[in-house]
TrEMBL record:
Annotated binding of phosphoenolpyruvate, by residue: K21, G91, R119, Q162, R332, R373, K399
Family: Belongs to the EPSP synthase family.
The protein's name in its UniProt record: 3-phosphoshikimate 1-carboxyvinyltransferase
Function description: Catalyzes the transfer of the enolpyruvyl moiety of phosphoenolpyruvate (PEP) to the 5-hydroxyl of shikimate-3-phosphate (S3P) to produce enolpyruvyl shikimate-3-phosphate and inorganic phosphate.
Any single Pfam family the record assigns to this protein: EPSP_synthase
ATP-binding listed as a keyword: no
Occurrences of domain Enolpyruvate transferase (ranges): 8-408
Subunit and interaction comment: Monomer.
Xref: HAMAP family: EPSP_synth
Main localization (coarse): cytoplasm
Length: 420
């Protein structure tokens, strides 16, 4: 059993943003699909990155790590080869590589852990079945067979944008033109924009249509040397911690990033935090916070830490359009509400929204729910609490941010961590 004890503290100092998990997934995949050798730098040693790298190697690519850099030699196993792809707990790894493995025509067995086997895949799997791919079972572990064929792919936009991203990687490899048609408005738009930019930098053409994208077939990915941008989603923990009580400067965050979680800047500004940016850094300083209405549709990963921030505001914050939070590493509407209540706060959970009553938190024992964003949100909450916070499942931070507790200490936080 892993756990962390975090004591109240006002953070201060400057920190480099960790490399973006979403950008790194995309860079590794594009590199593995490319002809030749690419360099991807810097790369976090996170569990999700390791899962994607291992799967790409199992599919035929070669990846050598040198410090924070990965050198990727693109290659693929012959069609029909049996491979096992262990996606660990990473939804991105599963949903991005499933169509790619099918485009290669591999007999790929997909394995997943934690909550991953329960997370939705049906809409993508149904479209793949309609385009020549067989599935041995309806849930993980399953083995796919056959080869993906080009054509018209219809997907809902409100389950997971990762379905679209996976197809955008795979369809350019097919021997004819395809179209992705959205049957409902797209949520998590920024993540698809990140995919489109990654494809463009790899020399792959995709044309937007009225409600989707047209993807020519027979395309080749170009090798590259790519710097992975800083992660707004994980930097958000420090910016919110500062808004609650401290002064933090985060470097390496791009102002014109496609990351939807860049919105944390405007949201904290609306809360009343003193937040500024220049060409090199974002700086946030505590100020009295007031409740907000927040649309979670484009920023699902920010919700746990924004809910914690709201607990320190005056008034009631409503976080709406958040039904998809229930299908992440934990049911994040339930686990976020439980976190706030465990620390002496008050929150109401509805099917697709959360209402957080402001007024501060006391501290206490909280469940990390085996969810990195809940554990990190608990640590941020602790900084503003009156008493210490003890959170279970501290190891979960390894999923996206293995240096989280070290970075907390660098900013003056006080914690004892037992990774179990
Ligand atoms: O494409 C990506 O890198 C991601 C997309 C989002 O998922 P959904 O599109 O399912 O919301 C996000 O929650 C996840 O952490 C990363
Ligand atoms: C939901 C997340 O990731 P994934 O979907 O890739 O598991 C996350 O990082 O919060």
């Amino acid at each position: 059993m892993s756990r962390a004890v975090i004591r109240p503290a006002a953070l201060s100092g400057t920190l480099a943003a960790p490399p973006s998990k979403s950008a790194a997934h995309r860079a590794l995949i594009c590199a593995a699909l490319a002809d030749g050798k690419s360099r991807v730098y810097p790369l976090a040693g996170s569990a999700d990155m390791a899962a994607t790298a291992q799967c790409l190697c199992a599919m035929g690519a070669q990846i050598a790590r040198e410090g924070d850099a990965a050198f990727v030699e693109g290659d693929r196993c012959a069609a029909g080869s049996p491979v096992t792809l262990d996606c660990a707990e990473s939804g991105s790894t599963l949903r991005f590589l499933l169509p790619v493995a099918a485009a290669y025509g591999l007999r790929a067995t997909f394995v997943g852990h934690g909550r991953l086997p329960e997370r939705p895949l049906g809409a993508l799997a149904d479209q793949m079945k309609a385009h020549g791919v067989s599935f041995s079972a309806g849930a993980m572990p399953f083995t796919i067979g056959g080869r993906l064929s080009p054509g018209r792919y219809e997907l809902p936009g409100d389950v997971s944008s990762q379905f679209v991203t996976g197809l955008l990687f795979a369809l350019p490899l097919l021997d004819g033109e395809s179209e992705i048609v959205l049957t409902s408005p797209l949520q998590s738009v920024g993540y698809v924009e990140m995919t489109l930019r990654a494809l463009q930098e790899s020399g792959v053409a995709v044309t937007p249509t009225e409600n989707g994208w047209r993807v020519p077939g027979n395309q080749r990915f170009r090798a590259f040397d790519r710097t992975v941008e800083g992660d707004w989603s994980n930097a958000a923990f420090w910016l919110c911690a500062a808004a609650i009580g401290g002064t933090v400067r985060i470097t390496g965050l791009s102002n014109d990033s496609a990351q939807g979680d860049r919105a944390v800047y405007e949201i904290l500004e609306r809360f009343g935090a003193d937040i500024k940016r220049d060409a090199h850094a974002v700086c946030c300083e505590a100020a009295p916070l007031r409740a907000q209405r927040i649309d979670a549709g484009q920023i699902p990963d920010l919700v746990p830490v924004l809910a914690v921030t709201a607990a320190f505001a005056v008034g009631d914050t409503e976080i709406y359009n958040a039904a998809r939070l229930r299908i992440k590493e934990s049911d994040r509407l339930a686990s976020t509400a439980a976190l706030l209540r465990a620390l002496g706060g008050s929150a109401e959970e509805y099917p697709d929204r959360l209402v957080v009553h402001g007024g501060g938190l006391r501290g206490g024992d909280a469940q990390g729910a085996n969810d990195h964003r809940i554990v990190m949100a608990a640590a941020v909450a602790a900084l503003g609490c009156r008493e210490k916070v003890c959170v279970s499942d501290a190891h979960a931070v390894n999923k996206s941010y293995p240096n989280f507790f070290d970075d907390l200490k660098k900013l003056g936080g006080r914690c004892n961590v037992d990774m179990g």
